[in-house]
Amino acid sequence: QVQLVESGGGLVQPRGSLRLSCAASGSIFSINAMGWYRQAPGQQRELVADITSDGITNYADSVKGRFTISEDNAKNTVYLQMNSLKPVDTDVYYCNADIMGLNCSLYGCYPLQPRHYWGQGTQVTVSS
Which helix H or strand E contains 58, and what residues bound it? Predict the structure, then answer.
């Protein structure tokens, strides 16, 4: 089984900063990409930023220049540094990872087909 555990959400004033972390653990063969999505009540989940295992990044236009995604491959962890936060950034933020799991039995271990995993979500509230 693979798990994603997020941390770092909370309440911050406008123009403040927060750093989110997401650590993947479990039976992992490889991680292709990790990223962050956010979702407001009644709205679709939208991509905030993602990063491949090679370090290629992609950002939503609304966060370019304010948010920075980074990764620590040795720790299977992705970070989202959020600066100059605005009230419109208030959402539940979800970690997502494209992971090839590992299945082991008495006969050996083999990689599984890659699939997307989700974290439990962390609330980010920007308010004065």
Answer: strand 57-59
